[in-house]
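DM from R.C. (forwarded with permission)

"hey, sorry to bug you on a friday — could you get me a structure for this? deadline for the figure draft is monday and I only need the backbone to look sensible"
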Amino acid sequence: MIRITVLLAILLSLSACGGDESSTMPAATAFTLSGIVFNGGFGVSGVSVAIMDGVHTGQTRTTDNAGRFNFTNLTPSAFTLRATATYAAQNKSVSITTSDQSVNFDLPDH
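My reply, with the result:
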């Protein structure tokens, strides 16, 4: 615990030192992908939304009671997003390059 406290104090003092702006590294770019899975105009809860390929393969979210899902800390990339309910599935192509994105699904009636 003492080592962690000392390390934290050192890091805080280093960050407070300031310095030449040109020597700082830019922050990594990370984006958010959000959306809603609909059926008949209503959000569907419990739908699995997964990134199927690319650098974020395997990340999965489950929609909330309003059908919403949210992926955070995504690096610029292109991939296939798949929404899977017990009665239907749908794919969408996604490309995140310069900003947060929103992708909605409209699953067929069951």
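R.C.: lifesaver. The helical segments are 2-16.
me: no worries. The first strand starts at residue 31 and ends at 39.
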